[in-house]
Amino acid sequence: MNAAEVFDTLGLEYQRAWSHQPALHGTLAWFAATQPSGSRVLDIGCGTGVPVARTLAKAGMKVTGLDVSPVMVDIASAQVPDASFHKIDIRDFESPPGSWDVICAVFSLLQMTQAEIIRTLGQISTWLRPGGHFFLATVAVDVEQVTLPWMGQEIQVSSFSEENFEAHLGEVGLRVVRRSRPVFTPSYPGAMPEESLHLVCQRP
Questions:
Q1: What is the CATH number of domain 3-203?
Q2: Residue span of the signal peptide, if any (predicted)?
Q3: Coil, strand, or helix at residue 19?
Q4: What's the CA gap between 169 and 118, in Å, rounded?
């Protein structure tokens, strides 16, 4: 199944399983405390809009969410009326240079190839204003298009190790300013603890 089909099927089940991650809420609280009201936020792979878009919109930021799943876009629009949501693949998205203060990609780059991830990181760096921040949450492992069972679905995943992610981010001009490797057990039957990688980067 492609990403749109997977997340169309999961809908709110995904939110119930994953939205209460303490480390994720901690990083969003940091953004809410440090970024001015009115900051322009791009939420890549926004899902149901909870918690990323909802938290940052409540803090007074102007949030735009993008997702490939029309079901997710509909749910997000209903749950976070203070933000705007659009059905589009980030690989097809265009934005002027320097047009965003904050860009978030919370587990949304995993269902690309490694080459597409690198290309997207380059675009993100261009889209950020100087001094702007990029928040990446992902799984830190060097894999290319590995098929995995996940929440009753089959998904194809690509990613990089922390060291390689940091190298690719550096190559596109993004500097890591906060990092953590939180472990979280999602709320669905048979779920095991999973370690993720959270990097907050800044464009100098």
A1: 3.40.50.150
A2: none
A3: coil
A4: 8
